[in-house]
User: What shape does this take?
Amino acid sequence: MADVVDKATRSRMMSGIRGKDTKPELLVRQFLHSEGFRFRLHDKNLPGKPDLVLPKWRTVVLVHGCFWHMHNCKYFKLPSTRTEFWRAKLDSNRKRDELVRNQLQALGWRVVVVHECQLRDDPQTALRTTEAAIRGDVPIL
Assistant: This one.
């Protein structure tokens, strides 16, 4: 099946998808800052350039979009066109996520992952759970 928009429009749409400063990431950042947490953003000295780095807590927070990280939730659906391309791309994203998580843990960092669907479905619970995970009150997500 052909794309519903022309190549130029699709290119413009795809270029609008950002890896930094996404709405879910901004929501987490605003909440944590309002709760008194201080953090660095996208530290290039750490594997994978984590979204938020909280040195005081020796914790990183990764905010994952459900599509790009192939999260098993109602918001992820493998595209019906170019399925093999997308499966390979998203599988490599997943493998890289696991590699980065392992590298960070090997360096002594605690890794907290927050998925977009958690923030969409019940933002207050997701944010409070993230805060508790950073403080060490609950197991890592």
Summary: Strands lie at 40-41, 52-54, 59-64, 110-115. The chain has one domain: 19-134. The radius of gyration is 16 Å. The CA atoms of residues 25 and 65 lie 9 Å apart.
